[in-house]
């Protein structure tokens, strides 16, 4: 059941995280350069941590996404976004990753079909 949940989270999160959660983590970790992010070595251990982090980031995104969309007040939207960013950063950290590592994996997975396949295989084992 957990593997199915993770596999579903991977598929959904690659689209969702890239569109919503990843930019929030990236915004919260500003000051990083693309060169630093792409120098992260992608190991199986890193990917295992990434899968956990991605699932947790997706949960945070879902938790706050509806609130954010249903709020018209710009100040409240900023507050919701800040809370979500803090929780996403905590989720990434709790999984044993830095924001640099998390963002680098997302970037690489979006650009590398072999890495996408590797990640999917890891979640289906």
Structure description:
The protein is built from six helices and no strands. Helices cover 84% and strands 0% of the residues. The protein has one domain. It is mainly alpha-helical and 125 residues long. It is elongated. It has helices at 2-28, 34-38, 44-70, 74-94, 99-111, 113-124.
Q: Distance between the terminal alpha carbons, to the nearest Å? A: 12 Å
Question: Main β-sheet: number of strands, strand sense, barrel status?
Answer: none
Topology, number of strands: 0
Q: What does the radius of gyration come to?
A: 14 Å
Helix content: over 70%
Short structural summary:
By secondary structure, the chain is mainly α. The chain has six helices and no strands.
Show the helix and strand layout:
Blueprint: H1 2-28, H2 34-38, H3 44-70, H4 74-94, H5 99-111, H6 113-124
């Amino acid at each position: 059941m957990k593997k199915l949940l993770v596999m579903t989270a991977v598929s959904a999160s690659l689209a969702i995280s890239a569109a919503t959660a990843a930019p929030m983590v990236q915004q919260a970790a500003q000051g990083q350069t693309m060169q630093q992010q792409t120098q992260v070595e992608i190991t199986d251990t890193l990917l295992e941590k990434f899968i956990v982090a991605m699932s947790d980031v997706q949960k945070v995104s879902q938790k706050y996404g509806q609130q954010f969309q249903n709020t018209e007040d710009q100040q409240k939207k900023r507050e919701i976004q800040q809370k979500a960013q803090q929780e996403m950063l905590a989720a990434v950290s709790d999984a044993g990753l830095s924001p640099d590592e998390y963002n680098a994996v997302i970037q690489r997975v979006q650009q590398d079909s072999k890495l996408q396949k590797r990640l999917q295989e890891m979640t289906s084992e």
